[in-house]
Amino acid sequence: MKLERRLLIEQGGRGHRGPELPACDVPERPLAELLPGVQLRDSLALPEVSEPEVVRHFIELSALNHHIDRGFYPLGSCTMKHNPKINDEIAALPGFALAHPLAGAAASQGALRVIAELEDVLAKITGFAAVTTQPAAGAQGEMTGLLMIRAHHRARGEGERRTRVIVPDSAHGTNPASVHLLGWETVTIPSEEHATVNLEALGRALDERTAAVMLTVPNTLGLFEPRILEVTRLAHQAGAQVYLDGANLNALVGLVRPGDLGFDLMHINVHKTFSTPHGGGGPGAGPVAVAKHLEPYLPVPVVRESGGRLALEFDRRESVGRVHSFHGNFGILVRALTYILSLGPEGLARTSRTAILNANYLMRRLASSYELPHAEHCMHEFVLSGRGLRKYGVKTLDVAKRLLDFGVHAPTVYFPLIVEEALMIEPTETETLDRLDHFAGAMERIAEEAREHPERLLDAPLTTPSRRLDEGRAARELKLRWAVPAASAPAREPAAQR
Amino acid sequence: MSFVGLSPEEERRMLDRIGVRAFEDLLESVPKSVRLARPPGVPGPLSEIELRRRFGAWAGSNDAATMPSFLGGGCYDHYIPAAVNALAGRSEFATAYTPYQPEVAQGTLTAIFEFQSMIAELTGTEVANASMYDGATATVEAALLARHQTGRARVVIAGALHPHTAAVLRTYLDGRDLTAVADRGGQCAPEDLQSVLGDDVACVIYQSPNFFGLIEGAPAIHQLAHAAGALVVAVSDPIALALLEPPGRPQGGSAGADLVVGEGQPLGNAPSFGGPALGFFACRQSLVRRMPGRLAAETVDRDGKRGFVLTLQTREQHIRREKATSNICTNQGLLALRATIYMGLLGRLGMRDVAELCVRKSHHAATLAAAIPGYRRAHDGAFFREFVLECPVEAAAVVRAGRERGLQPGVDLGLFHAEWKRWLLVAVTEQRSADEITRWAEVLKAAGGAR
Questions:
Q1: pTM
Q2: Of A152, A292, A489, B428, which residue is most buried, by most CB within 10 angstroms?
Q3: Chain A residues closer than 8 Å to B328 by CB
Q4: Which of A51, A98, A228, A467 has the most B C-beta neighbours within 10 Å, making it the best mutation to test the interface with B?
């Protein structure tokens, strides 16, 4: 019989404890004397568990996760590539890990050097004039970019008027959400039959109220926008700025520079393109690269070099201001720079080439068992539709759940919204041919099962740590924290008795 | 170096299967004029040995590599138990994505649920989310929530809020409808707060322990804000919360704060030059549907077994798009996990010990400093882990003297405001030994004598 899995609060017991702290080596004056008039808490219902049991708890939890070091993870638009181990070791060097953000420039030259170097290589890779590494995530990069666009229009006396952002219907949900955060309005334009930008619709939507056009290239179907130069030209003619959602940069590195496509700025998801671990949902980082005319608006602080010494510049009159408590997600930036330098120019180009090759190979293999709504060559990802399986009573969600039984993660499902029953697949460059073949084999077998044994899909997954979970019940009951077992009801705290 | 495992022969087979002659045929939709003839000239490739050499030199040049730290101001040098690194470093946690398929993500989801539970307990609130980017953006999101909830626009900052948090608020709120009530002697004076409150105020934001380390009089602030119909946003510190009455609970005859947010870095996360950090966000249950970010909830699977899922995703951007409660689509998963392990390891007793050691050691340091001619505390109020020293010389000179003697004596507040240039913000955590504190006092003496 297996011991039932328990939460931390359900383990241990009164007085159990983990690592000890050193005895107090300064005079032990009563707390009431040190903190006069301050009310101390009389209960703190946190777990009381020994170190071995805490370790077992988290090891047991860890075994329940799928992760890229275990197997294939083809989540479209998420770029689940290998996370090189050297990156983590470099970020953990004490000089980086213990660096304090307010130590001052003289004490932090090494940390500032990392930021300056990363800004430089990101500018080179993207073809832009300047980079800020402040934003903590792609979505914050988007918001920072829009703030810079607003500053640009304000400087030209058009700030009041230009408050609309044109977004194609294939865009990531963050785009309209970021626009809304500024109090601006999103104008959604329909895509063409081939999911690329409809130039006529764009032309109609552009006017003197347009602040920006936000695009994802390649788009969320994995297709490069063939008329991108025309798109950016039209937008600029109307006085708009053109923002690139850099989620799909893994298709372009070393092959095309977004700055050459007419974009004015973009964010970069270093946790996608530049291999930093996703961490179960973060932290990532979302640096923003901008063309020369937007440089004055970069958020503060900005790293500047003079006479070989690096310093942080805070006082920048036209800056949009500060977006992070300190200097962005430095520990993630260290990893990204380590990755880029480990690859070098040719390695970076090979990364994108292989990402594109892997995606096209999988797409052609799967086109016979699933619908492929757009048959052009793709870039680093592609979208299939599971609508052909509906006649067997099977949905895309069931395909996704069944895939888990084959030891691979499901693709992104039901996105982009413009494809019915969408399965969005991004293999990345770090998968080998036999892994791709295994995944394709599993997908083919599932398509077969849908015809012959649809119940297997409806029951799936069968071999995972949990079966399908009741999300409706979770939302109805809204149990968002544990219940403290009566046996460990909070006692009066020791210090309160002193 | 390369992380690709394909031979030229395999690539050939793949191209054949695709039905093209050469890789370039796949790029037919990319205009020829923008294709790069050669990749951008970044440095590299570097082997692991060369990477260690290059980055090792950079890391080694930071003072933090060798010098004990008395630096704080929102980022603290607390001890990280070995088990935190050993567990959180595991691939199973570090290389997983957001738990979109809960059947193969129960590790991440359970840990988030435990994180939410412990943050709610620490803050004295009913519910906490899965975390935010950092303390500053958590504060911003609290202000935005308060605006939506109350339908009012004005956001009031009461007293010594971290200047960077105030700056991020100004950025996000576009400087509009933001009123800062200056501190008096380092703390918020209720009469000053009273004078700016009105029926246009969405929330009052205060920090305790505040930027100067001082503990604010929470009940008076809560009472005034609530009387004006505003929500209360308390910005707090998770180590202090192990000892102090939490702001989410009613106290002194006043109701608790409606939202409690802050920076969770002290819970098992390295300073790392200020990021990645860990914003925590907790509130009353009645505000949960307006909450930004991710939430894990308990449920059961088809076999009736307990499990956890992300819930209320209809608030989130990937479904609601422009109607989402926020544009945030991540949490700080790995940092929240580290905080969860940290709180689990230290537990009820250890968390309290850390907090008490911080109080005793910081007060010991303040006592030593007060005995050195020319130094005095800049404020009178009770403080938790850090305090401001007014120096007989510029704080920058004290920092330089510290570096010469191999320690980082504090934050030069002149970096924030010219009028604070003689103020040194000193934080003393459980990591600092009595010997190190003595050495620190000697630095003050030496620097003061150089007047």
A1: 0.97
A2: B428
A3: 137, 139-140
A4: A98
